[in-house]
């Protein structure tokens, strides 16, 4: 059974797509079979993984039932990708009856749940039906944010959405942690934001990951070269941070799965 991880924050510019792509490539490098799902109409996840153009079917075709998911998957070197484009801005999901509009992705994914070790979902910078669909099908949620005060704004609304999904649609959803991106160690602002984030993490029954991601030119350059960050420059300090982050979440997930099996 696939382990499904969603990367989400309704604020833009916090590193959702970079983090999603890093998780995809990082697990693939560790021998896992990985599917990346782009639920952002900007369509950047595929680009970050080396996908050249989307001209053709996208995840929207599967969500609307026009094609089976297997017909939409694009196979790249390391991972498989379900691409998106701007057409995802108008999904038509709101026209479905309540209960089905929130579970369209879960239904589309069901035939492939035993095929992949990990499925990683990149979400749009909004708390909309696409985001809800991702939460409904996921085991774990990772929330990236940058070390600025504005990144803290809106986390309370995110908490309300998570709680609502857990109450009515997916009681097993777990917030694995909050990832601090573009972290400048030693600055007063970073220390203040980290402290406030720790407090917010407790409110949603999670934690701030030990690993913090530093600024890094390689992170921005890799997509332009059609390569994931680990292939492009594994020696970059920021890329090394992401490698440690993958190790950290792999250990966390393994522990959570083990506990669930014991409880179950």
Automatic annotation (TrEMBL):
InterPro entries membership: AAA_dom, DNA_Partitioning_ATPase, P-loop_NTPase
Catalytic activity field: ATP + H2O = ADP + phosphate + H(+)
Coiled-coil stretches: none
Transmembrane regions: none
Domain AAA intervals: 4-175
Protein name according to UniProt: Sporulation initiation inhibitor protein Soj
Source organism superkingdom: Bacteria
Signal peptide (from-to): none
Alphabetized Pfam families for the sequence: AAA_31
Family from the record: Belongs to the ParA family.
Source species of the chain: Oribacterium parvum ACB1
Subunit structure of this chain's protein: Dimerizes in the presence of ATP but not ADP; ATP-binding is required for double-stranded (ds)DNA-binding. Interacts with DnaA.
């Amino acid at each position: 059974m696939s382990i499904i991880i969603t990367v989400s924050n309704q604020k833009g510019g916090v590193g959702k797509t970079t983090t999603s792509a890093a998780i995809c490539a990082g697990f693939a490098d560790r021998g896992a079979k990985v599917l990346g799902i782009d639920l952002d109409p900007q369509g950047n996840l595929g680009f970050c993984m080396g996908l050249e153009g989307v001209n053709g079917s996208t995840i929207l075709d599967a969500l609307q039932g026009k094609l089976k998911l297997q017909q939409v998957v694009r196979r790249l070197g390391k991972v498989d990708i379900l691409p998106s484009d701007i057409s995802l801005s108008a999904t038509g999901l709101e026209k479905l009856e309540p209960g089905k509009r929130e579970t369209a992705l879960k239904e589309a994914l069901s035939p492939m749940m035993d095929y992949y070790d990990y499925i990683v979902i990149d979400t749009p910078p909004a708390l909309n039906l696409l985001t809800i669909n991702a939460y409904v099908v996921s085991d774990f949620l990772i929330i990236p944010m940058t070390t600025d005060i504005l990144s803290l704004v809106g986390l309370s609304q995110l908490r309300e959405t998570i709680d609502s999904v857990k109450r009515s649609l997916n009681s097993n959803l777990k917030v694995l942690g909050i990832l601090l991106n573009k972290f400048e160690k030693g600055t007063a602002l970073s220390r203040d934001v980290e402290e406030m984030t720790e407090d917010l993490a407790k409110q949603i029954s999670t934690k701030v990951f030990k690993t913090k991601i530093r600024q890094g030119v390689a992170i921005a350059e890799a997509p332009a070269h059609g390569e994931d960050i680990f292939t492009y420059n594994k020696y970059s300090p920021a890329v090394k941070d992401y490698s440690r982050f993958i190790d950290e979440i792999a250990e966390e997930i393994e522990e959570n799965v083990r506990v669930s099996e014991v409880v179950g």
